[in-house]
Amino acid sequence: MGTKTQPQLAKENERRIRANDKEFNAQFKYHNNYIKTSKYSLFTFLPFNLLEQFQRLANFYFLCLLVLQLIPAISSLTPVTTAIPLIGVLTLTAVKDAYDDIQRHISDSQVNNRKSKTLRNGKLVEAKWSEVQVGDVIRLDNNQFVAADTLLLSTSEPNGLCFIETAELDGETNLKAKQCLTETIELGDRHDLLWNFNGEIICERPNNLLNKFDGTLIWRGQRFALDNEKILLRGCVLRNTQWCYGVVVFAGVDTKLMQNSGKTQFKSTGVDRLLNFIIIGIVLFLVSICALFAIGCAIWEGLIGQHFQLYLPWEHIIPKDYIPTGATVIGLLVFFSYAIVLNTVVPISLYVSVEVIRFVQSFLINWDEEMYYPTTNTYAKARTTTLNEELGQIQYIFSDKTGTLTQNIMTFNKCSINGRSYGDVIDLRTGELVEITEQQTIFQNSNTNNRPSPSSGAIVAPPAAPPPIILVHKAEVHAKKSSLVVSSSGEAQVVPERPKSDDERPAPPLEAGEKRPGLKHVRYSAPSRSQDEDSGRLSPRVGGSGGLSPPIGNEERRSSGGFKRIGAGCMQRQLSRTSSCDKALQSVDFSANPHHESDFRWYDRSLLDAVRSDEEHSHVFFRLLALCHTVMAETVDGKLEYQAQSPDEAALVSAARNFGFVFRTRTPNSITIEVMGKTEEYELLNILDFNNVRKRMSVILRRGDSMVLYCKGADNVIYDRLHGGQEDLKARTQDHLNKFAGEGLRTLALAERRLTEQYYNDWRSRQQEAALSMDAREQKLNAIYEEIESEMQLVGVTAIEDKLQDGVPKSIANLQNAGIKIWVLTGDKQETAINIGYSCQLLTDELADVFIVDGNSVEEVEKQLRQFKESIKIYNRFRPGGFDAFDRLNSDSNMDPLSVTMTQTSAFMQETNLPPTPPPPPAISVVTFRWDEKNKDNKGGPDSAECNDLFGDEKGSDDGGTASIVVDENTGFALVVNGHSLVHCLSPELENKFLDIASQCKAVICCRVTPLQKALVVELIKRAKNAVTLAIGDGANDVSMIKAAHIGVGISGQEGLQAVLSSDYSIAQFRYLERLLLVHGRWSYYRMCKFLRYFFYKNFAFTLCHCWYSLFCGFSAQTVFDPMFISVYNLFYTSLPVLALGVFEQDVSDKNSLEFPRLYTPGLKSELFNIREFIYSVLHGAFTSLVLFLIPYGVYKDGVSANGFIVSDHMTLGAVVATILIVDNTAQISLYTSYWTVVNHVTIWGSLVWYFVLDYFYNYVIGGPYVGSLTQAMKDLTFWVTMLITVMALVAPVLAYKFYLLDVHPSLSDKIRQKSLKKIHSRASSDVRRTASSRRGRRSVRSGYAFAHQEGFGRLITSGKIMHKLPQDFAFPLGLGTKKTQVLHNNLNSVDGPNSKTNNVTGQHMVNNNTNMRQNQNQNHSSMADITADGRGHGGDDGRGSGGSDDMSPRAPCQDLDTINL
Fold first, then answer.
1. How many whole angstroms separate alpha carbon 440 and alpha carbon 1069?
2. Per-residue pLDDT tens over the stretch 989-1017
3. 108 sits in which H/E element
4. How far apart are CA 1254 and CA 354, in angstroms?
5. How far apart are CA 1196 and CA 1211, in angstroms?
6. pLDDT digits (tens, 9 = 90+) for 1259-1286
7. Where are the alpha helices (DSSP H) in 156-269?
8. Can you give the pTM of this predicted structure?
9. Is 932 a catalytic residue?
10. What is the 3-state secondary structure (H, E, C) of 865-892?
11. DSSP code of 989?
């Protein structure tokens, strides 16, 4: 035993790297940067692939059979019958595996051949990624991928900063700042200094922790600490940095990206695993039968056969001296003979057929036009052909968020300014809510020609310039009855108006009292309702000019399903009709603004009119957005571009820019903006930075003699810091907040505070004192910040949409209805993940509670899990109905079973004497059974909708029963787990508790998780729940999860193709997953199960005939059929019909499969093919074989034809049994087939004809031994009667059993087919779930806050480190105010002097993180609106309302922003 050398010790304990020293680094044998994901090479493919294929039990079984058939003494069949199918299966599988591996080779080659600039011998040379070595110094340019994990040495930015995007690692598109050591900044881009850099790095060994790095740099005799802030990881993209240099620390498989990739696993379906188990059982059954027949043969030979040696001589290898020995040897040989004869129970054609069916089904997926995405010209693609039926058995879906559920696009969607909501669009001609969709078309704006003038009706001359081409969007129109005016007498009226004026031309500012000619003016009758009711908000206030004042907020037009007062106060549900039409809806024209962005979309013109008419509140709103942020601006090719640390900020600053408040530039102590063409410069006094605890950020600005604090943050945080006297404004704004949150928008509240110079100077001195404190510095600073961020004035609310992909809410609802549990695993922060959960309807406001696990230790997490478990127990014990509700429903015999299974409409109590009204898409989804017509108390409020049965209200509640059971599927719990807590949840001591709670939750969201944690969660569910899992993602951070799941689905999105290349299936949009599972997955599983049941039936019916014949042939292994018939039975006679069944069969159409997601349930429980179904097929086949053999045997035994010929010979019996077997197979598969196509007809009836053709050809042309046997038998009437009796005896029980099941125990698909035959149009559960349009009419009492921002950028700005210029170059001296003569805008002149008193912040101002308390606060604000607005009308001097719907603006942020990964 020798001592270990220093390199060996270093390799075990630490990693040593010396820059630019290949000899030193070579001794440690570090991996190079070459990546290999392929499995085979040219030389290893054949042996490795064959070894892998023969690991499949069936292939090995058939190989053994082939060897036995090569022995003449025991084989009664030619080896060709097994060799050709086996070679075909091996070849087909090998070709498929080779194709898959070639694709991996191509992917590897593309990555390894990327170019990287590497320093060699003092010169910068281009090298392939695969040639980069540990210790090399490499250069990265802007927008370039990082080749390997690199220690940052120097950058083009001041202070050694650079910015990276980590979307490939964690899915986040936010920019992250990295900073090199100050000692290495001096290296710059000087190649001589970089080449002479010889620092030695001692660091940790390769690991998968993305957010951790520990190391030390030894250089020039000094040691410098290294952490994660100085490391650039492979897979990141350099952004907003011209260049940077770094030394490679980890390369190739050692990089953190590859450490998180996971290993490629061999995947097989549940059907495959069941088949393997069944084959083992069949082999054991075969062995036992062969052993039984071998014993029988030995006994027969010993007792009877020995006397017939002259007629039946024994083989020469059999000893004849001692009879028992000879009989035993014969029995042993017969054992192997029967093994060959009976091998057709599991023929090789089974696997050939399975592979063919899967192969064709894969093409059906690839060719599905319904899963074609025209935007990117992408079809769905089945990248594997072995997992199709597994798509029909998925129990858990694990989904990424960014790029999978969302589009990675933030849009400024709506806002509320001074209590008025903007962003809703209503068709003023019809009062209908116009919903913006993503279907874009090019619309020729020719309606400006020959347009009647709105005032005089005269024809306006066409413009000289050609009409512009305008990008428009198709609009869905939803009629809103709440836009009608309700008079005091209860009569609804609509006042017709003149047509809408041209919205393309920017409207000039209006003077006070002037009426816009194109606006809809409605004179409302006197209201008698509170503000929260529709007419109350519509009530006008007459201004001084005598015109109508605008309503406060847009809610007057959009309260879907609100109550309308009729007569003496009786309340009737005002239902809305939903209709769709294609209308060209044009966005507001911002072209008058020279800095507008062409891709910005906004459809509510009233906000632009307010800004252009110098409306004070709108100016304050957008000025705040243009000033309160950490965005950097630069001019590239004469165009202003923004660099934002988060896409949220980019969207807000972009919105202000398009409305005329353009952020131009900043220095460490100044911000310059341009307002309506006029430059305004502000001195930046302080940035109170954002963090996850404060949930807000503020800036303190000075301009002239005015000083102001602007603040934006979470609504509950801002509301706690407002001064008194704003109850009415707060209530109206809270109503808008609830509406925005109900629509899934991300909200931020905006506020301002005017400061006096004296107050600020006093606060500033105390702030500096707290900043220099050595103890409790953070707490003191937070208290100082709390002090100045109080007594603020509410400005408004922004609502940003993290745009979901089209159809995500509906798809998730349908998949959940199918019984699939959906988990979201994302690297995003908690608030963002929760917000998207609500937006995509994974989380709903109807949930009983949302559990948040965020403990930092095992004890804290265990305590939280224990509390949550108690909450679930209490809820299950005391909830209405409890578990007994379902028992009572299941025991009720009067309910339509299809309705019991499928009805999921929302609860609404309506008087039975009211006329029937078509129901709208409901806001919530519940299972409802109601017999009490007297209960009119609608707890759902405006969000409930009418309750209808699935196929119409055929059975009204005329009997007036008393039972009223409502089971809401949306109630229940959801679980949100943070990444650091998930580490403890996955530990052995807590994983069972975690699983216990998670399995009882409707939805689970894991946030801040690493790629490896995603895979661990999937593995946990696979192991503990034994469930079939599917993982779907679009980035490299999802690869390990995709590989770990049974099925991996890649989204061909914006984050590259890493996920697609590792996936089993690829689709372009998440919504196609619904069709992939509920249609193709269910069909594939249904077809495969039906195929297997029939296949085993026909083969047992065929093979067991030999067993019955053995009783009459002395167990001699003689076959009852012609050997050629045995060889081609599965190949020519029965293969094509069963293949057609496996490829084209369907019980219901694709439309019904989507409309009735409960059809998917049998796959979840493996009901269509399991051990029970297999045994049924075996028994059915055994019964068939018995009838098939005994009836013809009884008929033909000692039989004589009419001509006197003896027909009791072996060949005639075999020919007759074979013919009846083929006819029976044809009859049985005809009964099996539910969906008939031309292919089914051709294969089924063609195979029957083909049997007679081939039999004639073989026996008469080739000269088979059975020549004439079938021909002679068919000439006799006995054959036809025997065939008829036998087939009827076999078919009658099957028909009787099918009719019994259809009548007594019909399945859901049976009911749907019956309903379809009766042509009764049904409304399915997927239609009544809350869709993207129906959910917009809701209010939510939760906070919509989510802000993808990180702490630290404020300090970088004020310190000047982030700037391209040095601090001495700035116009403002640090700490000094501006002396510009330009006056501040008039809204800064009213300095709030009396409010200069300081407030000592107490506990009530601290951030409240408790969800329930936050909801209570929001409910209090909402109820305050009911009190303060009672009997009051609101208005102004403007008759235009901004519309009353909640449209999603389809515009995206400027695509040339590097900060957003578009």
1. 17
2. 898 999 999 988 888 999 888 888 888 99
3. helix 80-112
4. 25
5. 11
6. 777 777 777 788 888 888 888 999 999 9
7. 167-170, 191-196, 256-259
8. 0.69
9. no
10. HHHHHHHHHHHHHHCCCCCHHHHHHHHC
11. T
